[in-house]
C-alpha cells in the first residue's frame, strides 16, 4: 500500500501535476478494492495538515508556515465559523456559515453525531473547522451562540413520575417536564405547543412550559396545525397586510371582474386580448399565474408567448404586503391546505389569470427556430384575457382526439403546442438535460383529512408542455438580464462533487454499469436511458438524484447543471415564490428603459431591488424558506400516510430499497412512496456486513446483496407517528419441498460432522489421559 511518505514525496516533486484523490490513486496504480483505504489515508493527511484541498478539489502542499492558520496540538484547524446549524434525523448535521468570506468561503461544515454539543436545527452556533476532505469541510460545535427555536410541538402525557410533553419529529429526542401543565388546560394525549425553558444536559431533565393547546391527538385538522407550528410557518396575515392587499386590489378588482379596466393600469402595456391565450393547470388549482400562446411563421420559426401575472404591480416594494411576502418566501402546499405567500384577495383574485377576465401580465416572447433553438427574446408589460382554462386531464384528452366539445381553434393550438414542446425537449436532451423518472403519488382524503386512497400521479405529456414552456421562459428572461449586466437572483444548480460522483460510479459498477465520468451529463444521460424500463430503473434514477447537489437561489454567476442551462432564474410563479417577484421588478426596469450603458459596452439596470450584498442575503433566505416549505410538506404527508398505515399493521408489500446504512435498510412502498426501516437485527437469514463502497449490506454466508434499488418483500411491523417512524420486517418466502429436503440433508451432514468431531475429541482425550498417567509415574521414579 502506498505510504504517507510516498504521497508527500510525489506532491513535493516538480513532476507532480495537481490532481484530485481519484487521479492520485490512478498515478499510484491503486487497485479498486484498495481505494477506500487509500482515500482514508489521504483524508487523514488532509485533517492533519500534511496536504490541503484547493478550491477546485485538487491536492496540494499547504502554504508556508507563516501563511497557515494556527493549529491546535491535535492537528485540527483553529479557525472558527459562526453559522446556522441543521441537524439530520441520523444525528449528524451541517453548519451554514453566516459570512461568505470566512475560512470555508461560505461552504457548509459537516458535524458528526458526537460533535453537535446538543445543538438542534436553526441554532446559531460557533464551529471549529477541523479540516477539509474531498467532500467538504468538517468540524465540531464549540458553542451554542443562540437557540434558533425554543418552541416545539408535542403530545402531553401524564405518568406516575410526573407530567411531560413528548416532542414530535426528530429534532428533540427527550421528553420535557411540564410541572405547570394544568394552567394551560392540557389533557392527556392533547397536541400542544411548548417552549423549552431548559434543555437536558449532564443527566439533568429538561423543562418546558405549554403555551398553546392545539387539540386532541387524532382530531380532524390537528395534525396540520401541529406541522404549521412545528415549522413555524406564518399562517395568518396581520390586519395591516390584509387591508393593504384590499386597497391594492380594490381600484382594479371591480373593473377587472367586470372586464373594465382603469386607463392608468393599462397605460404603456401591450394589448394581447385578441390573442388566443390559454391556461393549463391541475383540476384543483385556484390561482393561475401563467398562460401561454403560440404563433407560427411562414419561415418555419415560431413565437412562444409566456404570460405571467404581474404581481409586482399590486405589491409595491417596501410595503407591509411586500415585507410579509418576503418573510414567507414561498407558499407552502400542505396535503390538505395551502399556506399562501400572498392574501387570497390577490393570489386567487386580481393576480389570477382567470378565464374571460382581463388581467395585467408580464410577457416573454421567445422566437424559436425550426429545431427549437432560441433566436431572440422580447419582454413586454401587457394585459391579456385567457380564452380557456384547461385542466391537464382535458388537455391530454384533447391531444388523444377526445375533444369533449372544445373549440377547434383550442384543439389546434394544443396540437401545435405539443409539437413544439417535443422539439424543445429533444433540443434540451441534445444539450444534456437530465430526466429523472421517479414516481410521485396523489393522495385522496376524506372529509376528516384522512388518507383513503393513493394512485400514481398523472404523467401525461400535457404536463411536459407547460414544463418545457416555463423552462424556456425562465431561461430567456435570465439571458436578457445577463445581457444588460444587472445582478439578479439566479436559480443555480452546481455540478456533483467528487465524492458523490465516485459513490455513484461505484454503485453503477456494482450492478453492472460502467461510468467513465459520473459528472458528465452525457454519461448520466446514457446511464438513465440504458436502465429505462428495467427492474433496476428506480434504484439507478434514485442514486443519480442523490449524487446531485440541491438547486438554490444565488447571485453567483453559475448555471443550472440538471437543465444544462448557462443562466437560469425563476420568473413564472410570482404568486407563490418571492424570487420571481424580485425578477419581475428587474424585468420592469428593462421594459421601461431604466437602463444605462457603462464602460465595456454592458448595461446595468438603473434601479434594482437591492444591492449585491442584500440581494445575496435575500437569496439565502429564499433558499431556506423553500427548504422549510418542502420539509413541512414532507412531514405532514408522512404523518398522513403513517396514520393510514396504522390501520394496516401486518400487511405485506414488495418494496424498493431506497437507503442502506450499517444498521439496516430503508424500504419504500411503491404504492404510497413512504419508507420504513428494516433493522439489520430482523434480517435473520444471514449475517450481514455493511459495504459502504457498494452502498449495500452483504450476507457473509450467502453473499446476498441488499442495495439501493433492490426489491424486498416486507411486512408492516409498527408505526410511531410522533417519532415519524415506520418499522418493517422482511417476509421470508415459504420453504419449498426441494428447499426443505436440502435443509434436512444439510442438518444430517452437520449432525454427522458433529459426531465425528466428538469421537475425535474423545480419542484425543483418552490419549492425553494415558500420556498424563505415564508422565506422573515417570516423575515419581
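Q: What amino acid sequence fits the structure above?
A:
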Amino acid at each position: 500500500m502506498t505510504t504517507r511518505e510516498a504521497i508527500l514525496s510525489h506532491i513535493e516533486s516538480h513532476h507532480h501535476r495537481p490532481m484530485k484523490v481519484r487521479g492520485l490513486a490512478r498515478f499510484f496504480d491503486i487497485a479498486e478494492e484498495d481505494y477506500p483505504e487509500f482515500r482514508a489515508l489521504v483524508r487523514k493527511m488532509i485533517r492533519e495538515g500534511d496536504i490541503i484541498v484547493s478550491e477546485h478539489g485538487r491536492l496540494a502542499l499547504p502554504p508556508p508556515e507563516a501563511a497557515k492558520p494556527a493549529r491546535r496540538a491535535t492537528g485540527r484547524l483553529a479557525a472558527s465559523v459562526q453559522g446556522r446549524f441543521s441537524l439530520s434525523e441520523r444525528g449528524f448535521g451541517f453548519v451554514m456559515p453566516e459570512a461568505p468570506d470566512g475560512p470555508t468561503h461560505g461552504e457548509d461544515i459537516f458535524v458528526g453525531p458526537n460533535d453537535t454539543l446538543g445543538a438542534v436545527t436553526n441554532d446559531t452556533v460557533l464551529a471549529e473547522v477541523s479540516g477539509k476532505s474531498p467532500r467538504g469541510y468538517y468540524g465540531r460545535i464549540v458553542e451554542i451562540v443562540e437557540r434558533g427555536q425554543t418552541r416545539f410541538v408535542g403530545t402531553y402525557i401524564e405518568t406516575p413520575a410526573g407530567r411531560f410533553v413528548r416532542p414530535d419529529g426528530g429534532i428533540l429526542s427527550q421528553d420535557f417536564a411540564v410541572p405547570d401543565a394544568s394552567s394551560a388546560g392540557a389533557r392527556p394525549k392533547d397536541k400542544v405547543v411548548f417552549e423549552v425553558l431548559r434543555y437536558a444536559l449532564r443527566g439533568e431533565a429538561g423543562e418546558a412550559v405549554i403555551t398553546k393547546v392545539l387539540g386532541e391527538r387524532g382530531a380532524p385538522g390537528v395534525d396540520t396545525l401541529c406541522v404549521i407550528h412545528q415549522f413555524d410557518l406564518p399562517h395568518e396575515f396581520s390586519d395591516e397586510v390584509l387591508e393593504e392587499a384590499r386597497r391594492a386590489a380594490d381600484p382594479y378588482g371591480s373593473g377587472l371582474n367586470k372586464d373594465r379596466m382603469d386607463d392608468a393600469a393599462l397605460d404603456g402595456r401591450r394589448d394581447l386580448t385578441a390573442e388566443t391565450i390559454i391556461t393549463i393547470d391541475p383540476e384543483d388549482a385556484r390561482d393561475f399565474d401563467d398562460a401561454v400562446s403560440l404563433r407560427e411563421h411562414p419561415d418555419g420559426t415560431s413565437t412562444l408567448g409566456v404570460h405571467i401575472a404581474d404581481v409586482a404591480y399590486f405589491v409595491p416594494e417596501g410595503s407591509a404586503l411586500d415585507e410579509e411576502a418576503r418573510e414567507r418566501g414561498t407558499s407552502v402546499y400542505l396535503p390538505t391546505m395551502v399556506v399562501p405567500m400572498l392574501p387570497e384577495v390577490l393570489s386567487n383574485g386580481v393576480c389570477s389569470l382567470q378565464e374571460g377576465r382581463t388581467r395585467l401580465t408580464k410577457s416573454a416572447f421567445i422566437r424559436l427556430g425550426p429545431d427549437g433553438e432560441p433566436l431572440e427574446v422580447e419582454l413586454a408589460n401587457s394585459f391579456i384575457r385567457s380564452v380557456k382554462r384547461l385542466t391537464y386531464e382535458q388537455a391530454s384528452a384533447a391531444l388523444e382526439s377526445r375533444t369533449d366539445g372544445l373549440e377547434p381553434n383550442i384543439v389546434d393550438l394544443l396540437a401545435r403546442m405539443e409539437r413544439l414542446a417535443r422539439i424543445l425537449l429533444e433540443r434540451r436532451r441534445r444539450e444534456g438535460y437530465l430526466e429523472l423518472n421517479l414516481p410521485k403519488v396523489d393522495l385522496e382524503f376524506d372529509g376528516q383529512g384522512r388518507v383513503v386512497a393513493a394512485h400514481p400521479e398523472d404523467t401525461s405529456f400535457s404536463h411536459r408542455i407547460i414544463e418545457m414552456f416555463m423552462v424556456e421562459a425562465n431561461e430567456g428572461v435570465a439571458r436578457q438580464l445577463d445581457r444588460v449586466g444587472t445582478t439578479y437572483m439566479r436559480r443555480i444548480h452546481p455540478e456533483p462533487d467528487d465524492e458523490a460522483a465516485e459513490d455513484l460510479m461505484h454503485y453503477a459498477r456494482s450492478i453492472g454499469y460502467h461510468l467513465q465520468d459520473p459528472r458528465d451529463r452525457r454519461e448520466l444521460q446514457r446511464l438513465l436511458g440504458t436502465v429505462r424500463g428495467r427492474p433496476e430503473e428506480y434504484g439507478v434514477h434514485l442514486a443519480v438524484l442523490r449524487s446531485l447537489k440541491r438547486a438554490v437561489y444565488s447571485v453567483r454567476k453559475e448555471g443550472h447543471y440538471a437543465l444544462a442551462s448557462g443562466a437560469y432564474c425563476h420568473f413564472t410563479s410570482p404568486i407563490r415564490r418571492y424570487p420571481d417577484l424580485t425578477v419581475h421588478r428587474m424585468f420592469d426596469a428593462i421594459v421601461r428603459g431604466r437602463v444605462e450603458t457603462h464602460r465595456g459596452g454592458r448595461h446595468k439596470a438603473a434601479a434594482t431591488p437591492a444591492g449585491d450584498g442584500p440581494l445575496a442575503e435575500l437569496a439565502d433566505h429564499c433558499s431556506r424558506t423553500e427548504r422549510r416549505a418542502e420539509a413541512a410538506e414532507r412531514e405532514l404527508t408522512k404523518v398522513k400516510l403513517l396514520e393510514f398505515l396504522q390501520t394496516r399493521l401486518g400487511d405485506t408489500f414488495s418494496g424498493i430499497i431506497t437507503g442502506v446504512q450499517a444498521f439496516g435498510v430503508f424500504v419504500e412502498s411503491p404504492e404510497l412512496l413512504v419508507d420504513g426501516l428494516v433493522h439489520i437485527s430482523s434480517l435473520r437469514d444471514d449475517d450481514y456486513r455493511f459495504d459502504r463502497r457498494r452502498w449495500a449490506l452483504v450476507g457473509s454466508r450467502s453473499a446476498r446483496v441488499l442495495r439501493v434499488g433492490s426489491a424486498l418483500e416486507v411486512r408492516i411491523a409498527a408505526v410511531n407517528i410522533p417519532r415519524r417512524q415506520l418499522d418493517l420486517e422482511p417476509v421470508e418466502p415459504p420453504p419449498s419441498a426441494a428447499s426443505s429436503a436440502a435443509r434436512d440433508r444439510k442438518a444430517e451432514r452437520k449432525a454427522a460432522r458433529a459426531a465425528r468431531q466428538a469421537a475425535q475429541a474423545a480419542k484425543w482425550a483418552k490419549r492425553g489421559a494415558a500420556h498424563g498417567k505415564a508422565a506422573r509415574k515417570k516423575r515419581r521414579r
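Q: And what stands out in the fold?
A: The CA atoms of residues 372 and 427 lie 6 Å apart.
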